[in-house]
Amino acid sequence: MSVAIALMGVFGCNVASPPGNTGGFEGPAVAVVCSDFTSTNIAITRPDGTAVSGSFVSTGSAKSGLALALSGDVTVPFVAPASGRVVIVDRYGTDVLTWMKPAKGTVIAQLSVGTGFDSNPHDYIEVDPKRAYVSRYRTNPTPGQKAFDSGGDLLVVDTAAFAITGRIAMPEEDPALQPCPDGMNWLGKDVVVTLGRTSADFKTIGDGRFVGVSPATNAIDWTVDVAGLQTCGRLVVSPSGKLAAIACSSTANTTTNKFDPAKSDIVLYDATATPPKELRRLGLGLKLDSGVQPTIAFATEDAILALTYGGNATPGDTVFAVSASTGAVTALGQSTMPFVLGGMRCSSGSGVVCLLSDAEHGVLRRWKVASSGFTPLANVPVDPTVGLPPRDMGGIQ
C-alpha cells in the first residue's frame, strides 16, 4: 500500500555546507555509518578497512537524489544485500528505506515503512531476488488506521516495485511487553530475528528471545528463549555454520548507569540443530564485572570479537577476544569513555581482518587474525570529508 517517496529538495540538517559526494564503488565493501546523532554520513571501505569513498551519501548531500535527507539515527543491513545495492535504514521518526546504486552513488528508490506511526525499523534482509524483510521495533498503540500499521513485526517488501506487500507478526505472550524485533541474520534456510521484549515505556524488559522465520511460508518456525539474560543482540554464526552465538548486555541502571553482570553473557548454540540447541554460557558478565555489548563477531571458528560497556569495571568500553570453547579472554584494547566502541565486522576466507568502529578517535580499529591470535594493524580514519565519528557498519556484496 505504501508508495516510493517522490518529494524532492529537503536536504541539510546540522551541516553548514553540503559536501560533494566522493563517488561510487564496485566490488565487496563495508558501509560505515558515521554519526553525531543529528547528522549522518555513509563512508565506504574495503573489507580490510581500506578507504574507498569517504562520503558515499550524507545528510548534507546535494546531488544524491534523496527525497528526504538522512537523519541522525541511521543503520545499514548487517547481511550484505544479495542485489548488490546499498540499502540505508533511516530509523525512529523518519522510518524510510533508501536503495542506492553502488557504482554511481545515486538513489534508486525510497520507501516509507512508518505506515502512520513511528515504526523504528532496525534491520533489512533480502530473502530472495524480489523480497526483503524489515524488522520494525515499535508497536503501534492505535493500529487499524492504515494497512500494515500494527508494528512489532517484519514487513515484507517487494524490492522490484518498492512496496509493502505483507507483514509477519512477532510473538509476545506477556501483555506488559512488546516483541521489539531487532537484528536479523541467516541461519540455514531461516531468517533468525532477535526480539528485544521491552515495555512501551522501556521500564520493563523480558528475558532474551530469538525466532526463526521461514521465507518459504512467511511464518515463524521456531522460538528460542535465552533464560536469565536480557537485551540480546543479533545471533551470529561461525565460519563453518556449525556454531552460533548471541551476546546479551542487560540494561543500565538509570541511577548508577551500571549494567547488571548477572544478566549479561555470551551464549553458544549448536547451529545445526533446529531450533538451535544451547551448548554453553561463557560467564563473561560476572567474570569481567561488566555488561557485554550485544554486538559480537566470529573471527575464526573459535575466536569471537566482543566488547564491554564502560561504567562498571572500567570507565571506558573494552574490546577483547574470547574462545568459544574455553571462555578464555584476551584483552585487545579500550577507550577512555563509554559508548564509543560499537560496530564491528570480520572478513571471511583467508587473511581475515576484523574492523571495529571507534567514535572516540574517529577511526576504524583493525586486527589481522591468524591461528596465533589478533595482530593490531594501523587504525584507519574513516570520514575525512564530513568529519563525523563512526558508529556502525554493514556488508555490501
Outline:
The chain is an all-beta fold. Helix content is 1%, strand content 44%.
Describe the structure.
The structure is a single chain. By secondary structure, the chain is mainly beta. 1% of the residues lie in helices and 44% in strands. It contains 1 helix and 28 strands. The chain has one helix at residues 284-288, and strands at residues 29-35, 40-45, 51-58, 74-75, 86-90, 96-100, 107-112, 121-128, 131-139, 151-158, 163-169, 181-187, 190-195, 208-214, 219-226, 236-237, 243-248, 265-270, 277-281, 297-298, 303-308, 318-323, 329-334, 341-346, 353-358, 363-370, 373-381, 390-396. The strands form 7 sheets. It has a 4-stranded antiparallel β-sheet with strand order 3-2-1-28, with no helix packed on it. A 4-stranded antiparallel β-sheet has the order 4-5-6-7, with no helix packed on it. A 4-stranded antiparallel β-sheet has the order 8-9-10-11, with no helix packed on it. The longest helix is centred in the last third of the chain and has 5 residues, at 284-288. Mean pLDDT is 92; it is low at 1-18.
